[in-house]
Amino acid sequence: MLTMPAGKFATIKVGTFPKYEGVFMNKGESFIWLTDDRRKIPVLVKSTISIVSTLTKMEPGKDIK
């Protein structure tokens, strides 16, 4: 369970090994936390190269079928 500014979420953690170019070439890894529901909304992204993204607000929208 992650607590974010947008609320508390049950999540699953996915690890990636991106292929960066330039100064970041073949360095680091990234992790993405997705909501553990059918929507799989990304709520947190962290990287070992100092990139962090956090979900701060979520508003309901149309359901995609």
Give the SSE map.
Blueprint: E1 2-4, E2 7-9, E3 11-16, E4 30-35, E5 42-47, E6 52-54
Give a description of the structure:
There is one protein chain. A 4-stranded antiparallel sheet has the order 3-4-5-6, with no helix packed on it. Strands 1-2 form a two-stranded antiparallel sheet. 0% of the residues lie in helices and 42% in strands. The model has no long low-confidence stretch (mean pLDDT 80). It is globular. It is an all-beta fold and 65 residues long. The chain has one domain. A hairpin with a 6-residue loop joins strand 4 and strand 5 (42-47).
Shape: globular
SSE order in H/E notation?
EEEEEE
Give helix % range.
Answer: under 10%
Q: Averaged pLDDT, please?
A: 80
Strand order of the largest sheet: 3-4-5-6
Number of strand segments: 6
Helix segment tally: 0
Strand content: 35-45%
Alpha-beta classification? mainly beta
Question: How widely separated are the two ends?
Answer: 27 Å
Query: How would you characterize the largest beta sheet?
Result: 4 strands, antiparallel
Radius of gyration: 14 Å
Instruction: List low-confidence stretches.
Output: none
In total, how many domains does the architecture comprise?
1
